[in-house]
Amino acid sequence: MRILVVGAGAIGGYFGARLLKAGRDVTFLVRAKRAAQLAATGLIVKSPLGDIDAPRPPLIEAEALREPFDLIILSCKAYDLDGAIKSFAPAVGPNTLILPLLNGMRHLDALDQRFGAGAVLGGLCAISTALDDQGRILHFSDFANLAYGARESAQAEKAEALDKVLLNAGFDARRSGKIAQEMWEKWTFIASAGLTCLMRAAVGDIEAANGADLAVALYNECAEIATGAGFAPREPARKFAGGMLTTPGSEFVASMLRDIERGAPIEADHIVGDLLRRQGAKAEPGSVLRIAYVHLKAYEARRARETGAKAERSGA
Fold first, then answer.
1. Residue 114 and residue 116: Cα distance in Å, rounded?
2. Percent of the chain, pLDDT > 70?
3. Residue-wise pLDDT tens digits, 82-114
4. pLDDT for 250-265, tens place per residue?
5. Angle formed by the axes of helices 235-246 and 179-192, to 10°?
6. What 8-state DSSP symbol labels residue 136?
7. Is 28 helix (H, G, I), strand (E, B) or coil?
8. 176 and 121 in contact (C-beta within 8 Å)?
């Protein structure tokens, strides 16, 4: 099975490197700058689960795509989705499967519209990674999980066929019979973790400030939206979220907070805004979810203003 990994960043690069080491037929779709970097240094992963050094990873740029691949693994940020779709579209044939690992659900609408729902599986991952200044992939956790599954019954056989390439590839992979449910449960949790962005603090700091009730309120609000969509979080998911969001002394923060702290783009609309949109007229003006969203949008507005001002000064 020919696999195209879109990008060789912190997530796609990690799973792609594991697949490559396991002997799978993997090619990385990269931009010119990343291609030059990888050609010079190779694809390097530093991980507690074992390092990887692939001196010459198979690379391709969008302009060179001519033939379809069997599987496309997509793990870009939501704000890069349109560009990613345009770049890998030539690699999608009548039998190609697309496995997106983005958070939330809105990306499925864009992929379905462009390629048809039958080509797009459900997927999610749990991993903590980042790129360093040298382009190496740093894996911080002792886990790397990937789940995939059919979103409709007609995809079941195709999803099962992925077992041969995704299982036993150096990370914890599993095929889920309820992938949409799991995606909603993860979405509900990470949107609730947006409280750390609002407070600019870790869970333990918020708890120390007697703010655990706000974390619970935000999670319950998100869970209510999921329930209204037909995906009420199950008890294990609720228990996990409750522990992660209220544990005294916890240093857990949303990855979006790390993006904010380094002045990077964020997925405000995809993760928090889309939940709020689905809540519709039921959203209260003072809801914690709405306040968290306004905070994120205010950050985006300020970032855009300061970036624009910097560009004007440079132009002058």
1. 6
2. 98
3. 999 999 999 999 999 999 999 999 999 999 999
4. 999 999 999 999 999 9
5. 20
6. P
7. strand
8. no
Letter for the amino acid at 122?
G
Q: Among candidates 180, 175, 185, 193, which has minimal Cα distance to 235?
A: 185
Q: What does CATH list as the number for 183-308?
A: 1.10.1040.10
**Core vs surface per residue 7-46: b (16+ CB within 10 A) or e:** bbbbbbbbbbbbbbbeebebbbbbeeebbebbeeeebbbe
User: Cα 123 vs. chain centroid, distance in angstroms?
Assistant: 10
Active site (annotated) includes residue 186: yes
Coil, helix or strand for 47?
Answer: coil
Q: What is the SS3 assignment for 63?
A: helix
| Residue ranges, CATH 1.10.1040.10, the chain | 183-308
Tell me the backbone φ, ψ of residue 26, rounded to 5 degrees.
-115, 135
Tokens of 173: 């992979």
Please provide the CATH number assigned to the domain covering 2-177: 3.40.50.720
Q: Are 259 and 190 in contact (CB under 8 A)?
A: no
Torsion of CA 181, 106, 13, 86, to 10 degrees: 140
**Range(s) for CATH 3.40.50.720 in the chain?**
2-177
Instruction: Output the CA angle 235-239-10, nearest 5 degrees.
Output: 110
- Overall pTM > 0.90: yes
Identified catalytic residue from 158, 186, 297, 310: 186
